[in-house]
Please model this.
Amino acid sequence: ATVGILSATPEEKQAINALMDVTARLARALAPALVGLLLATTLPQYLFALDALTFGVSAIAIFSLSRAYPWRPQREAATAPSIREDLQVGWVAITGHPVMRWLLPMKPIVNMVWGLAFVIGIPLLVETRFGGDPRLYGFIVAAYGAGNVIGNMLVGSITVRRRAFVMFSGLVVLGLGFTALGLATSPWMAMVAAFFASFGGPMDD
Model:
């Protein structure tokens, strides 16, 4: 499988990237909506127990792979590069590419601001403006996840020629969507804004 990915065309790599990424975005769409529904009939502590159970299931699934995949890593060649050499090669590759030179300082800033808005801002918005209903928080995050999945399928199904333009346009869409989310005066407006903002993530990624 790895050889197939390495030898894939740029268009195939784009589709593979979208397929791998859509799984996380699908979970982001379905899980909050499910939690919003469960909170109507279930105590919050049971959700933590359910989360712990899923980790146990994941551990069992990983151990079940031991028959097909060896646990011990293959012995590395004696001439394997050092960490310093790896970093040096990566730095030269990034700084030698005009788009990557912009992404290197910008990506950490974007991720930090996104985390503040998504992880902290949305709960605060629900608490201060919409009465603190946890189900609404779940629905807003689910709207974001649903847009993520749809945007991922759209971006993954087309041939992107101007990749840098699409990536930076995605950041603009993300920023405008979060701005609209912060200005929302009703739950429906908040969900629509989150849905719109979510298309920026797949475009950028």
In short: The mean pLDDT is 80. Residues 129 and 174 are 22 Å apart (CA to CA). The radius of gyration is 21 Å.
